Each structure stands twice: as structure tokens, then as C-alpha cells.
Amino acid sequence: MKIICLSCGHKVELDDAYDDFEGLVKCVVCGTMLEIKTEEGKLKAIKVADPDPRGSQAQEN
């Protein structure tokens, strides 16, 4: 299966281990982390992952 990086357009090749998968995939060209969901070898959802898992909240000291 191939997916297209939403940041740079590179075709990312995924092996059969990703046929039923939900999680992060890294583009080898630009390093963008993509959140994907696949079922039975078909892409169901893709988006650029939030680089900060806390969102846009400011860090408190």
C-alpha cells in the first residue's frame, strides 16, 4: 500500500503489516508524522499528526 505525504507529496510505501493499522507513520523524506488508519489494506483516514501531544497549551513552570 502507498500513501502520499500531506506535507511534501512523497509516496510512502507501507508493507502488509499496515493492512489493519491505526497510528503514526513517518515520511522518510521530510520527517512529517502522519496519523493513519487502515482497514483491510485500504486507507480510511490520514492527517498530519499534532507535533505537540499537549496541543497548543502553554507550558507552566
Overview of the molecule:
By secondary structure, this protein is mostly beta strands. It has one domain (2-48). The chain has strands at 2-4, 11-13, 21-26, 33-39, 42-48. A 3-stranded antiparallel beta sheet has the order 3-4-5, with no helix packed on it. A hairpin with a 2-residue loop joins strand 4 (33-39) and strand 5. It is globular and about 30 Å long. It starts with a strand and ends in a 13-residue tail after the last strand. The model has no long low-confidence stretch (mean pLDDT 89).
Keywords:
61 residues; mainly beta; 3-stranded antiparallel sheet; two-stranded antiparallel sheet; 5 strands
Summed up:
The protein is an all-beta fold and about 60 residues long. It is about 0% helix and about 45% strand. The chain has one domain (about 1-50).
How many extended strands? 5
Biggest pleated sheet: 3 strands, antiparallel
Beta content comes to 35-45%
Summarize the amount of helix as a percent range.
under 10%
Q: What is the average of the pLDDT values? A: 89
- Shape verdict: globular
Distance between the termini: 45 Å
Side-by-side strand order of the widest sheet = 3-4-5
Please state the structural category. Answer: mainly beta
How many helices? 0
Helices and strands, in order, run as EEEEE
